Amino acid sequence: KDISLREKSVEIEELSNKLACLEESRESYTRETSGAAVRERHLWARSERKYDALQVVRSNIQQLSIELNFIRCEFVSAMAEIKKNTDFSFHALNEKLRSEVKKC
Questions:
Q1: Cα(60)–Cα(69) distance, rounded to whole angstroms?
Q2: pLDDT, tens digit, for every residue of 3-42?
Q3: Quick check: pTM over 0.85?
Q4: What is the rounded distance in angstroms from the CA atom of residue 89 to the CA atom of residue 82?
Q5: How far apart are CA 46 and CA 13, in angstroms?
Q6: 83: part of which helix (H) or strand (E)?
Q7: Segment holding 1, helix H or strand E
């Protein structure tokens, strides 16, 4: 009877140790998965911030494109005005030279 009781006591102690190991493993797994969930939430938040920043950059590029087109139109208009004035000046200079040549 003593041997059987001792064997049962050893078996209970072994099972108790296994249970403690399993509980420790479960706690470790819970900590790891909890940490992973926190890291995943941080990654999502960072990803969302980067996406928001990208949207701001995209909006700025669109605004700059609009402004560039306006500047391009202004430039083309100014160049047309310069050409018109230059053509007129050359025409006037040609007329003046012709009249001077006729005088000679």
A1: 14
A2: 788 888 889 999 999 999 999 999 988 888 888 888 898 9
A3: no
A4: 10
A5: 49
A6: helix 2-103
A7: none
